[in-house]
Each structure stands twice: as C-alpha cells, then as structure tokens.
C-alpha cells in the first residue's frame, strides 16, 4: 500500500514537471511572434526588460508573455512597470501589430511612458480582450469611442492619465460585461449625463472616478438604474456641490463609499443606514452640517469611518456608534463637535485609530479609553479638554504609537518611576501641564521619532540621560519652557531641533551633518560665532534653517559661512556681532531669508549677496551699515521684505525697487537717504492689491513639518519686529498679510507722489520727519485698508483732502508739525483723534483742535457751498432794495399828479386812525 502511494506521488510530480516543460517549449505562433517583435521595435527599453524577446527564443517563454497551454497562442501580456520608479518604464507608442494577437484577453501596460500620445483607436478592434490596464501610462488626448466595441471587457483601467479627456460618455454603456472601471484623473466634465450611462452597466461591481472634474450626481432621468451588484463607489476629489442624492442609499450591496474632498452640503441623511453592508465610509473634506445621525450606529460591518474637515456640530457622536464592534478607524477631526468625549467609545474594542482633534470638545478624557487595547493612534489635541491624566488612562494601551494631546489644558500626573505600557513613535503634548520636572518616563521610549513638548511648564536642568537618549529622535521641539543647561559639549544629531525661549547657557553645541533645522533663539548662549561656523564635520552639512537670534554671541562672520551651502534661512539677529558682512555670504546660493538685525555690523551691503537669487527677506535693521542701497535689489524678484531701518545708508532710494512686484514690507526708516520718493511705487503689485490669505506668496519662506495624522504643525516660521502705529510689535503668523512702507526719519524732499495713493492694499504709511513739501494727495482716501498714516514733521501745506474721511480702518494718524491749513474734514474718526496729532499747523482749525474756524478761514466741502449761497443772498437783497426804492421814489419825482395823490392818501389814513383811536379811549374811560 505504501509502495502504491509512493508510485502515485511520483507519477503526479512527473506529470507536473512535464507540464512545465511543455509550457516553456510550446510552439510559438510565428505570426504572433513577429507581431510582438514589431511591437517591441516601437518602444524604447532602457533597462532591457524585453531582452528575452528575440528570434532565437520561442515567444511563449518571453518575459511578460503568456500562451495557451494547448494552442500556444498568446493570450496575456503582462508589461506593467514593476518598479513604479520610472527606471524600468517602456517608452514610445503602441504599434498596430497588437491586432495580430487575435486571442489576446489580458493586456497590462500600466505605469509606462507613452509620452502623451493618444490611446490608439485600434484597441477597440481587439474583441477578445477581457482585461485592459493602461493606468498611469502617460497617455493623452481624447479617449477613443471605439473602446465601446470591447463587449467582452470585464476590467478597464485608464486612470492615472491626467492628459486624457472624454467628450461623450455614451460608448461606456456598450461595455455590457464590465465589472470594474477606473477612469481616475481623466477629465469627464464635458458630458453631464455620465451617471445615466454608467448606471446602464448591469454587471458593474467597482467604479473608481476620483479627480474627474465631475460636478453633478443627479440623473437627467430622475432615477439611477444601478443594480445591486455595485460594491465599490469611489468619487473623491470632484466638484459635487449638492446634497447627497437619494439614489446612493438604494445601493444595498455597497461595501465602499468614498465621496471625500468634494463640496457636498446639507446633513448626512438618516437613510445612510440602508447601506447595511458598508465597511468603508469616507465623507471627509466637504461642507456637511448638522449632527452625526444615530443611524450610523446600525452599520454593523463598518470598519473605517472618516468624516473629518466638515462643519458637523452638536455632541461628538451618538452613543449608538459604540455598537460598531468592527470599527478600527474613526476620524472626526476638524469639525465643530462639542461636549465631552462619550464613554461609549471605550466599547469599540477593535478601534486602532481615533482622531478627534481640532473640534470644540470639553470635559475630561474618559478613563475607559485606556481599555482600548488595539489603539495605535490617539489624537484629541486642540480642544478644550481638561482634567488630570494618570497611569490609569494608559493601562491597556500597549500598542499605542502616536499620542496627540497638544493645545489642551490636560495635566499629566504620573509617578516619577512610571513605566508606560507602550512604545511611542510620536508625542505631541504642546501646551499641556507636564512639568515642572522633566518627565523621567520619556527615557523608556526607545523608538521615538517625534517629541513635541513646547510650553509644557518644564523648569530646571536637562537630565544627564537626555542628550544621549535624544540622539536618535528625528524631530525635537522643547521651546517656551524654562529648561536650563550648558550646551558647550552637546552634540545635536536630530534632523529638526528647536529649543527656543529657554535658559540654555554656554557656547553653541556641535551639530551633526544630518541636522536640517536648528533653532535655539532667545536663550543665553555666548561665545564667538566663528567657533560654531568653523566646526569640523566629516561630511557636507544638510542644515537649512539656522536661528541663533536673541543670544549673546559675539565676534565677526568669516569665510566659514561657505561651509553651510544648504542654508535657506539664517537668523543671527539681536546678538553682539560686529565687523563687515563678508563677501562669502554670497556663496549661500539657496538663501531665502537673512536676518542680521540689531547687531553692530558696519560697512556696506556686499555685492556678492546678488548671487542669492531666491532671496525673499532681508533684515539688516539696527546696525551701522553705510553706503548706497544697492540697485541690484530690484533684480531679486522674489524679495518680499526689505528692512534696513536704523543704519547710515545715504543717497537716493533706487528706482529699481519698484520692480519688486512681491514686496510687502519696505522699511528704510532712520537713515540718511535723500532725493525724492520714487513715483513708480504703484508698480509694486503686492501693495496695490488687497491682502489675501489664499494668495500667500510668503509661503515660500515657510518650513513646515506637517504631521497630518495629528494635524500638528511643526517647522519654522519667519517673524519680524516692525514699528507700526508708533510702537514696536513682533509679527509672525499674520506677517504674510502685512503691507507697510516706512521711509521716516530721512532727508527726503519733494512732494508725496500722487501714485502712492494707488497702493490700495497698504496698511501702514510712514513718511514722517523728512523735508517733504506740497499737498497731501487728493486721492489718499482710495487707500481704504490704511490703518496707520504718519506724515508729521514735514513741510506739507494746503488743506487736508476731504477724501481722507473714506479711511474707515484708520486708527493712527499724525499730521503734526506741517504747514497745513483750513478746516479739518468732518468724520467720526478724524474728530476722535488726539489734538496733538494735528498740532504745529498754525492755520489748521476745527475739531479736535480747540481753535474754531472763522468765516474768513477757508471753509470746506458743504460749508463752502453754504458760504457761497450766503454771499449770493446779500447781493440779491441789495439789488432788490435798490430796484424797489428807485422804482417807487423815481416815479414820484417824475409824476407830480402821482405825488399829490400819494400824500393825499396818507392824510386820509392818518385821519381814520385818529378817529378810531379816540373812540376806543372814550369807551374805555
């Protein structure tokens, strides 16, 4: 019996080997072999993927070719790029030789490069095809209608070719056998009846149409004829802006529904419970409102639920969601959900990812969340959550990898020797109460990649174990605490390290070449800057962001700057640096932002800085720099900020500055500049347009490390100290929206150019303490966003323009010490300013000054009209008196009879009055 079994096994193995041998030695159809070789000739094969395709070998053994075991005819071509890297792509165009493969059922050419050529219409003649995959193969142009002839096709994948478009979608309804359709990234918006045609595909099971520019989900027939076979409906990133249509909730077989990243409005219908087989639901990034419906709790098979970035409000979730025992992913962040986190979430035993951050949640963290033993990521940051967290809250969270409780009022209360059950990779605790002691439990975390502990109330010296432990952490943020320690012997190895606003002392630490961001501003570090810049490294530094501002560093910059070729942001402001700015600074070709303010640098601006062609910000304020402002600055078209105030620059303001269309801050105050204000300032389009957060050119100066799964923004943001409304202020987050021109405290002469009133987006204009003459531009009221205007201490004359009353945002005004005259225009704002803002103009009158305006003192506006009318009244009255007097008296002089009759009439009147009066007196007596 054993022998028979052994023999049987041997026979089976022999047949299997013979079958394999037969497959490799199948007689290849010569016609198809030559057709494939012609197909190969139309392609470029940089990595020789088709090297086995030769006359000496049978085509059934060629790479990617599959033949029928019996007939030897080619029925499958698997030529997808296996690496998706571009290195192994086939390049060229499709040859009509494919038509000779009459039995071809399977054709996969995805992820190759056909250089934007159209999909050939002859593919519609390959009637045996059941599978066609051209996904991401760089085709372009019109999708041929002839594909509708492939009546046997079951799977069609044309997506990932953004150069393709469809003009008429009717041909798709002819593919009666189609089960799976992917047209992602193809422009389908030209045919508004796409839904009617697709719904005619009675066998369709999977439909993928992301990024197709579709804008309606409503059938022209009033109903949608999808059968119960549809299991996947993926329509993200289109332009749907209506309510969720009712036909969606008739698709009872649906397993996957993705409508994310559209503009859907209205509420989530309660009929969503009809989709009782659903295991994936994504409605994120829409404009949905209202509460989360309780009926979601009836989707018993739901595994993934994502509704983040909407306008959902009310209590976070109905308790019914606690029944979703299969739910593993719940993302509701960035809504307007309020109230406490419900304890029912602790019933979701399968939950692995819970993201509730950036809502309006309050209360405390439910303790039973600590029982979610499968939880990998917990994000509850940026809410109003408070209370104390202890070891109990983390008791069962052994799988936790990401913890985000940033921007809350949570207090950590764990014992000094606590050993957490988890090994975290990402910690975001910014703004929590973690101190005052440095948390000892951190040293138990061996796989940490991100540590964010800004503003957590830590006070005291860094523990000895910290620097060695932190050497393998990629990103560390410790800013805005009171951490102390000497950094002289410390080696920083983290890619991103930020310890701003602490109490570190000593010399600057050593950096490894791997460091990309190093910011340690506002500490008490000292020593010579050259010791840091000239430190030895084994390889080229990758440092891009270096911020050493607000310390006590001294010495001069030298040629060692050339070693830091990767720098894009350099901030050495507010130290004790001196000497000239070296020419070697021009070797930092990638530099975008350069801060050297509030030091003691002398000499001129080096010509080599012209080599920094992407420079967007220059801040050399409060130094001892001298010379002319270089004209090459006008050639640096990326410049958005020029801040050179409080130096000793002289000469004219270069006209080339007007070419800087992106300039939003021009601060040249407190120098010795002379000449006139350039008339071409209106060419600076960034100041002539209304500031918008959407059009943020300043984003090129940002360095963001975006932890998307926790929405924790780490990185580096530029800030500036600006003098606005008479006081110094630090601008950071709103800096991109600021528009300022400050030319005060110079020796500028001439008039204020009328063109400056075309800077409609300007918010602050300071031309004070110069020698400007002439009138204030009549159209200054057109600068409607102006909040601060200072023209004091000049020689301006004439009246204050009436249009100034249109500056409704104006909150700071100083016109003092000029030669202005006339009445101050009447408006709610102007009369609310301090009289000192108008003092020093002897001929100026009216509120808020105590000096009243007399009739002879230049009335304005409506008062001018009123005075003019009063003058004409007196002239008319005088003329009327003269005409009336001489018209009567002249007639009496000329006509004797008229004169006698007139005096006779008067005598009669006198007699009558006498008689009447006498009778009345006699009656009274």
Outline the structure in words.
This protein is an alpha/beta fold and 925 residues long. It is built from eight helices and 62 strands. It has a 30-stranded mixed β-sheet, with no helix packed on it. Strands 37-39-41-43-45-47-49-55-57-59-61-62 form a twelve-stranded parallel β-sheet. The longest helix has 34 residues, at 861-894. The radius of gyration is 41 Å and the shape is globular. Residues 11-24, 857-870 and 914-925 have low confidence and may be disordered.
End-to-end distance: 170 Å
Tell me the β content: 15-25%
Mean pLDDT level: 88
Sheet/helix structural class: alpha/beta
Low-confidence segments, ≥5 residues, pLDDT <50? Answer: 11-24, 857-870, 914-925
Could you give a short account of the major beta sheet? 30 strands, mixed
Query: Helical content, roughly?
Result: 10-25%
Count up the helices. 8
**Rg on CA atoms, Å:** 41 Å
Query: Strand tally, please?
Result: 62
Q: What general outline do the C-alpha atoms trace?
A: globular
Which key phrases capture this entry?
30-stranded mixed sheet; 13% helix; 925 residues; twelve-stranded parallel sheet; alpha/beta; disordered C terminus; single chain; 8 helices
């Amino acid at each position: 019996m054993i022998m028979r079994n052994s023999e049987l096994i041997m026979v089976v193995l022999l047949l299997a080997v013979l079958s394999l041998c037969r497959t490799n030695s199948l007689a290849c159809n010569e016609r198809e072999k030559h057709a494939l070789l012609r197909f190969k000739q139309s392609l470029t094969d940089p990595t020789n993927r088709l090297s086995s395709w030769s006359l000496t070998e049978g085509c059934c053994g060629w790479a990617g070719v599959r033949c029928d075991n019996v007939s030897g005819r080619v029925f499958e071509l698997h030529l997808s790029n296996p690496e998706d890297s571009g290195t192994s792509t086939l390049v060229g165009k499709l040859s009509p030789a494919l038509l000779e493969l009459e039995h071809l059922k399977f054709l996969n050419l995805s992820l190759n490069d056909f250089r934007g050529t159209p999909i050939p219409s002859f593919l519609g003649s390959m009637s045996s095809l059941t599978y066609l995959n051209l996904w991401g193969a760089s085709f372009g142009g019109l999708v041929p209608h002839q594909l509708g002839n492939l009546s046997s096709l079951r799977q069609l994948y044309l997506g990932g070719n953004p150069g393709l478009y469809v003009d008429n979608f009717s041909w798709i309804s002819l593919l009666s056998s189609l089960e799976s359709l992917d047209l992602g990234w193809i422009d389908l918006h030209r045919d508004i009846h796409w839904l009617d045609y697709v719904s005619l595909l009675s066998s369709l099971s999977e439909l993928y149409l992301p990024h197709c520019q579709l804008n309606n989900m409503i059938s022209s027939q009033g109903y949608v004829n999808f059968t119960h076979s549809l299991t996947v409906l993926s329509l993200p990133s289109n332009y749907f802006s209506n309510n969720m249509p009712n036909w969606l909730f008739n698709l009872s077989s649906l397993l996957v529904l993705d409508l994310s990243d559209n503009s859907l409005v209205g509420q989530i219908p309660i009929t969503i419970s009809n989709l009782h087989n659903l295991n994936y639901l994504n409605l994120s990034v829409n404009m949905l409102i209202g509460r989360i419906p309780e009926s979601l709790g009836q989707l018993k098979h739901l595994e993934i639920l994502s509704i983040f970035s909407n306008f959902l409000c009310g209590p976070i979730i109905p308790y019914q969601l606690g029944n979703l025992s299969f739910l593993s992913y719940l993302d509701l962040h960035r809504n307007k959900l309020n109230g406490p986190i419900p304890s029912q979430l602790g019933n979701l035993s399968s939950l692995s990812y819970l993201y509730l951050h950036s809502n309006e949640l309050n209360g405390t963290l439910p303790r039973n969340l600590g029982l979610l033993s499968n939880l990998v990521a917990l994000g509850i940051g940026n809410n109003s959550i408070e209370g104390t967290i202890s070891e109990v809250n983390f008791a069962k969270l052994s799988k936790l990898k990401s913890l985000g409780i940033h921007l809350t009022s949570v207090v950590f209360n764990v014992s000094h020797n606590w050993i957490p059950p988890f090994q975290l990779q990402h910690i975001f605790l910014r703004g929590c109460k973690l101190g005052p002691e440095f948390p000892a439990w951190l040293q138990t975390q061996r796989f940490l990649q991100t540590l964010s502990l800004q503003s957590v109330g830590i006070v005291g010296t860094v523990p000895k174990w910290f620097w060695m432990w932190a050497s393998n952490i990629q990103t560390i943020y410790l800013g805005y605490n009171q951490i102390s320690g000497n950094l002289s012997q410390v080696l920083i190895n983290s890619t991103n390290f930020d310890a701003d606003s602490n109490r570190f002392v000593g010399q600057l630490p050593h950096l490894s070449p791997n460091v990309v961001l190093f910011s340690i501003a506002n500490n008490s570090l000292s020593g010579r800057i050259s010791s840091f810049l000239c430190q030895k490294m084994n390889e080229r530094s990758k440092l891009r962001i270096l911020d050493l501002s607000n310390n006590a560093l001294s010495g001069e910059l030298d040629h060692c700057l050339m070693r830091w070729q990767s720098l894009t942001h350099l901030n050495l402001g507010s130290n004790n640096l001196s000497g000239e700015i070296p020419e070697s600074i021009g070797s930092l070709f990638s530099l975008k932002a350069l801060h050297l303010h509030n030091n003691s640098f002398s000499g001129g601006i080096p010509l080599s800085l012209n080599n920094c062609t992407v420079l967007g910000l220059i801040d050399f304020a409060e130094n001892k720099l001298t010379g002319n402002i270089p004209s090459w600055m006008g050639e640096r078209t990326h410049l958005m900020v020029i801040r050179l105030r409080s130096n000793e620059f002289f000469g004219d303001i270069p006209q080339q500055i007007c070419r800087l269309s992106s300039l939003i801050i021009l601060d040249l105050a407190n120098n010795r500049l002379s000449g006139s204000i350039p008339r071409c300032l209106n060419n600076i389009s960034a100041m002539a347009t209304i500031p918008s957060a959407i059009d943020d050119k300043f984003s090129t100066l940002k360095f963001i490390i975006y932890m998307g799964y926790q929405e924790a923004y780490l990185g580096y943001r530029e800030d500036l100290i600006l003098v606005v409304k008479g006081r110094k202020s630090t601008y950071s987050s709103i800096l991109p929206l600021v528009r300022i021109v400050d030319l005060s405290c110079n020796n500028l002469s001439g008039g204020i150019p009328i063109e400056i009133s075309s800077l409609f987006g300007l918010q602050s204009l300071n031309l004070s303490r110069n020698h400007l003459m002439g009138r204030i531009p009549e159209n200054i009221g057109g600068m409607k966003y102006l909040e601060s205007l200072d023209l004091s201490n000049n020689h301006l004359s004439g009246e204050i323009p009436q249009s100034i009353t249109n500056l409704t945002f104006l909150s700071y005004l100083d016109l003092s010490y000029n030669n202005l005259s006339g009445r101050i225009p009447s408006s709610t704002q102007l009369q609310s300013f301090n009289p000192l803002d108008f003092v020093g103009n002897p001929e100026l009158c009216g509120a808020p000054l105590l000096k009243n305006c007399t009739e002879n003192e230049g009335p304005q506006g409506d008062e001018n009209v009123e005075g003019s009318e009063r003058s004409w009244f007196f002239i008319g009255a005088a003329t009327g008196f003269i005409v009336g007097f001489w018209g009567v008296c002249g007639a009496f002089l000329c006509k004797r009879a008229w004169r006698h009759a007139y005096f006779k009439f008067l005598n009669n009147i006198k007699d009558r009055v006498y008689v009447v009066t006498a009778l009345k007196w006699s009656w009274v007596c």
